[in-house]
């Protein structure tokens, strides 16, 4: 535990560290594991949903790279685990720039160690409820050139924030130049059940209770961005919805988790994802 920053309360479960536990990571404490096990006891597919969300993040980052985007602002980036944004970009574009932002001290401390003075990747500790602080931060300005397309990621973070989250997303949408990509995944109330109610109750014990939103509310976060057809270029058919369950956004046969579980749990069917492009038609 030498890596745990002094200000961390080891006795209170935290959503970032519970997510790390769901993904099989080791940056969590007994209180996190206890709370996460309680969630898994009522909803065993939450761990599948976490992995499917992580796989969505990877596909969305690759998609952005294909669109010619070479800089990434990952908001609520979490505790670094296999498949971070810069792990994905470095295989495709070694010069891509990545800024991680998280409010959780463990996530930030661990990211700092992992990044090991890589000049193209950095992390700041900040609350995304203060977009101006992030956009005007000197590290952001050094790394992210807002005159060129950028991918802004709100992956599995907005459902930990109460109230009007469009007020958070809107300043980022406004700051992003044409050709930029907005990537969102969000747990919704679309398929809420007694199981989801119980999970919400368990998350009340963390500093960031779960805030499920209606799918339409999440779709509205894309503003006037053009959402990318989730079925991919081949499918011109019926279900080219803006938002789909995370596992169904341009699925990749390599992702084992995509198969089998997709309709098994409200956590997979109600956990929605989409990508919107600003001011430019998405190249397929
Ligand atoms: C479930 S994890 C998601 C991590 C990563 N984005 C992913 O999808 O794999 C949610 C993260 O959001 C962070 N978070 C929650 N509220 C936040 C806020 N107001 N500002 C910044 N980060 C926040 C948590 O600390 C946690 O690391």
Automatic annotation (TrEMBL):
<dbReference type="Pfam" id="PF04672">
    <property type="entry name" value="Methyltransf_19"/>
</dbReference>
<dbReference type="InterPro" id="IPR006764">
    <property type="entry name" value="SAM_dep_MeTrfase_SAV2177_type"/>
</dbReference>
<protein>
    <recommendedName>
        <fullName>S-adenosyl methyltransferase</fullName>
    </recommendedName>
</protein>
<dbReference type="InterPro" id="IPR029063">
    <property type="entry name" value="SAM-dependent_MTases_sf"/>
</dbReference>
